[in-house]
């Protein structure tokens, strides 16, 4: 489903973000709204993003939309093709490697050193994401499980208490969602990580930060290897 489809979930969701964008009327807010559609899985790799449709959905000028799309192209979430328009990026194996390089630096450190790793509210977001994933799995909703996993990793970085790291993780998760869309076995990939997320959360809840950070690093290396193996067979 792409934004070119007027009945698409992404376009409807962006229309819902109109009030937020209207209050600020900035290209950055438009970029945030479009990026969130990627993170939540409503915009998929290869989908075209017509400026006019975005302008109408969000109630902003085409110049504002154009500026926002240029920002997302710079972030590698979108690509601009001459004489064709702007499309959601289709990540390759090197993009996967680079995303995981960044994640392996950010996520374990957020757990080990995070200023909010003892904050019940921040830790509670991890537990909420674990519950969300298990509830989605119980309903055989594997895209929902994938979304819950995104929320779990955002919550991990949230333990750092850094708005800048939260922003960077948002960019990485947008790229990761595009990676996941290229995986052919959604359930087989995501299901084992339900227990992994639970185990990491238990370690954080019990204050075992060093062990939790080590588990996060191992988890990420395993996921990277699985994804690269899958990409090799595409």
Overview of the molecule:
There is one protein chain. With 234 residues, this protein is mainly α. It is built from eleven helices and two strands. A two-stranded antiparallel ribbon has the order 1-2. The radius of gyration is 18 Å and the shape is globular.
SSE blueprint:
Layout: H1 9-16, H2 18-24, H3 27-39, H4 51-58, H5 62-74, E1 78-81, E2 85-88, H6 93-113, H7 120-138, H8 142-158, H9 163-181, H10 186-205, H11 209-232
Antiparallel strand pairs: 1-2
Helix pairs in contact: 1-4, 3-5, 3-9, 4-5, 6-8, 6-9, 6-11, 7-8, 7-10, 8-9, 8-10, 10-11
| Distance N to C terminus | 21 Å
Q: How many DSSP H or I helices?
A: 11
Strand order of the largest sheet: 1-2
What string gives the helices and strands in order? HHHHHEEHHHHHH
The count of β-strands is 2
Instruction: Provide the helix percentage.
Output: over 70%
Strand content: under 5%
Net shape: globular
The biggest beta sheet is recorded as:
2 strands, antiparallel
Poorly predicted runs: none
Quick check: average pLDDT? 89
Q: How large is the radius of gyration?
A: 18 Å
Class based on secondary structure composition and strand pairing:
mainly alpha
Give a brief rundown of this model.
The protein is 72% helix and 3% strand. The protein has 11 helices and 2 strands, in the order H-H-H-H-H-E-E-H-H-H-H-H-H. A two-stranded antiparallel sheet has the order 1-2.
Properties at a glance:
two-stranded antiparallel ribbon; globular; 234 residues; 11 helices; 2 strands; mainly alpha
């Amino acid at each position: 489903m792409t934004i070119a489809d007027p009945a698409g979930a992404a376009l409807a969701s962006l229309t819902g973000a109109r009030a937020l964008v209207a209050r600020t009327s900035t290209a950055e807010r438009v970029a945030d709204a479009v990026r969130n559609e990627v993170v939540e899985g409503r915009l998929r790799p290869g989908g075209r993003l017509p400026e006019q449709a975005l302008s109408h959905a969000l109630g902003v000028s085409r110049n504002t939309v154009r500026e926002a799309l240029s920002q997302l192209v710079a972030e590698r979430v979108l690509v601009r093709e001459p004489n064709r328009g702007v499309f959601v990026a289709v990540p390759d194996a090197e993009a996967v490697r680079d995303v995981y390089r960044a994640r392996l630096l950010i996520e374990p450190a957020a757990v080990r050193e995070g200023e909010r790793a003892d904050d019940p509210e921040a830790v509670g977001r991890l537990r909420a994401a674990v519950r969300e994933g298990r509830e989605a799995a119980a309903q055989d909703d594997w895209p929902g499980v994938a979304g819950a996993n995104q929320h779990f990793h955002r919550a991990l970085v949230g333990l750092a208490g850094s708005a800048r790291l939260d922003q960077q993780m948002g960019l990485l998760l947008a790229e990761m969602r595009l990676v996941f869309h290229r995986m052919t076995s959604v359930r087989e990939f995501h299901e084992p990580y339900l227990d992994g997320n639970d185990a990491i959360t238990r370690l954080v809840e019990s204050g075992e930060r060093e062990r939790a950070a080590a588990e996060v690093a191992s988890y990420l290396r395993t996921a990277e290897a699985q994804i690269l193996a899958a990409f090799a067979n595409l």
